[in-house]
Structures are given as C-alpha cells and as structure tokens.
Amino acid sequence: MQRLEELVRLPEGWDGYTGFPVSLSNAIFAFRVLESICLPETPPPQIVPGSSGDLQIEWHTHHGDIELWIRGPNNVHAWRSVDSEDGEKELCLTTDFSDVSRWISELTESTIAVPAAA
C-alpha cells in the first residue's frame, strides 16, 4: 500500500519528460488485485510506474517471472514465463484473476520449497 501511495504522489514529469503519476483508480484497482491473488507467504512484488498513469506489478525469481501491466481498472495484461513445459503465457484480463492467482501460488510454493530442501 505504501508503494502505491508513493506512485500516486509522483509529480507530473517524474520521468524527466511528461510522465503522469499513477492514477488513483489504477492504484486502488492494483491493491484489490494484489489482495485477491497473494498469499501471506507470497514474495513482495516490484511495483513500477508507467509514464501514462499505468503501472506494472512484477515478480522475478529463479523459478519464473510474472508481470501484470495495469493499464486501467479492468484492463490488465498478464504475462508469465517459467522453466517448464508451460513456457510463456499471456492473458488480457478484466475481472477474473484466477489464472494469475494460480501462477502466484505456484511461484510461492517453488520459492518456499527451495530453502526447505537446502
């Protein structure tokens, strides 16, 4: 939540050009998506602003990558890459984030399993 608040408060031109702060509606939507897809043990994502008021939520681990590009409320491009037969997947999402929730769960399980096996 703190990171999203920081991104909403960015000054116009924060990127050295004409970048807009993350819109409040995008920040609220992103927070609600994170609430619905993350488990308590999910690694924290990187949250990166886009120059048009959009934002990206990213997880990059040794077990795979997940990126959510929040272009607007109910307008999300989701991407995942893993080292398995599943390879890469891309989805355009509006309200159903069950696939992303599964991706996050799999990523979280993989991340937790490695230290336990060591």
Structure in words:
- The protein is an alpha+beta fold and 118 residues long.
- The chain contains three helices and five strands; from the N terminus they run ααβββββα.
- The chain has a five-stranded antiparallel beta sheet with strand order 1-2-3-4-5.
- Strand 4 (75-82) and strand 5 form a beta hairpin.
- Helix 1 packs antiparallel against helix 2.
- It is elongated.
Entry summary:
The chain has 118 residues and is α+β, with helices and mostly antiparallel strands. The chain has helices at residues 2-8, 24-37, 98-117, and strands spanning 46-49, 55-61, 64-72, 75-82, 88-93.
**DSSP strand count:** 5
Mean pLDDT: 91
Number of helices: 3
Principal-axis shape equals elongated
Detail the poorly predicted runs. Answer: none
Strand composition percent: 25-35%
| Helical residues, percent | 25-40%
Describe the sheet with the most strands: 5 strands, antiparallel
Strand order of the largest sheet: 1-2-3-4-5
Which structural class best describes the helix and strand composition? alpha+beta
The end-to-end distance, rounded to whole angstroms, is 33 Å
Order of helices and strands: HHEEEEEH
Backbone CA Rg: 15 Å
Descriptive key words:
alpha+beta; 5 strands; 29% strand; 5-stranded antiparallel sheet; 118 residues; 35% helix; 3 helices
Record the SSE blueprint:
Blueprint: H1 2-8, H2 24-37, E1 46-49, E2 55-61, E3 64-72, E4 75-82, E5 88-93, H3 98-117
Antiparallel strand pairs: 1-2, 2-3, 3-4, 4-5
Helix pairs in contact: 1-2
